[in-house]
Amino acid sequence: MAWDLGAGLDGRVVVVTGASGGIGSATTAAFAAAGARVVAVDLDTDRIGAALAREQVEPALSIAADLSRIDSHADLLEQVSALGPVYALVHCAAVLRRRADVRDITEEDWDVQLDTNLKASFFLCRSVAESMRAAGTQGRIVTFSSQGWWTGGFGGSVVYAASKGGIVSMSRGLARTYGPFGITVNTIAPGQAKTHMLLDGIQPEVLDRMTAETPLGRIGEPSEVAGVAVFLASQHASFVSGATLNVSGGFLMY
C-alpha cells in the first residue's frame, strides 16, 4: 500500500453531502486534495459555490438536492453516474433546530430533524450501498453523528442528539449488512467545531463551559474533522467498519 494522504482515493468518485456547511466544505476540500473526483451536494448550488470558493476548491460536480425528499435520491445517483461509480459517500448533511426550553419543541421540530438527519440518511446510505453492491465496488460510507449521541444534547439540541444517536445504531447495522460485499460503514462523532451550526443560537455560557471541559481547551476546526473522513474513506482504514470515531478534543472519551 502507498502511504500517501488518501491512499486509494485518486480519481475515485466521492459524494459529499452538506457541502456548503463548515465541515462539509472542509471535507470537500480535503477529498479534492487527496485526488478524488468530488461531487458536492447541498440544497443550493450557489451556496455550494460560495462555500467552496472560500476553500479555494472546485468540485468535479455540484448538485442541488433536498435529501429529505427520498424520491430525489435516485435522480441524484443518476447525475453522479455520469462521473462513474460511487466509491465513497461522506454524508455530512443535517439540520439542527435549537430550542432553549424543551417545552418549546414542536412536533414539526421533531419531524424536520428526524426526517432529514435519520430517515433520509438511511435511505440515501442504502441506495448508495446497493449501487456499490451492484457495481462490485468495495466502497466506503462515512456518516456523521455528534458527541451528543453519547452525552445527550447541549444548548437546546435534545432532538438533534436523538437523531444522531440513531445514526450510530443505523451505521452499525449497515456495516453488518454490507460488510460481506466489501463495503465499510463508519461514523464520525464531532465535538465542538467552529461551524455556523454550533455557534448560531447557542448560549455563550454553554459554549464556554463545554470549551472549558474540553482537555485541549479549544473549539476544533472543520479541517480537523475532514481529515478523519479522508482516513475512513482511504485504504488506510480498509479493516475499519462499524466504528464511531470520537473527534471532540477529549470532551468525550470512550
From TrEMBL:
<protein>
    <submittedName>
        <fullName>SDR family NAD(P)-dependent oxidoreductase</fullName>
    </submittedName>
</protein>
<feature type="domain" description="Ketoreductase">
    <location>
        <begin position="12"/>
        <end position="191"/>
    </location>
</feature>
<dbReference type="InterPro" id="IPR036291">
    <property type="entry name" value="NAD(P)-bd_dom_sf"/>
</dbReference>
<dbReference type="Pfam" id="PF13561">
    <property type="entry name" value="adh_short_C2"/>
</dbReference>
<comment type="similarity">
    <text>Belongs to the short-chain dehydrogenases/reductases (SDR) family.</text>
</comment>
<dbReference type="InterPro" id="IPR002347">
    <property type="entry name" value="SDR_fam"/>
</dbReference>
<dbReference type="InterPro" id="IPR057326">
    <property type="entry name" value="KR_dom"/>
</dbReference>
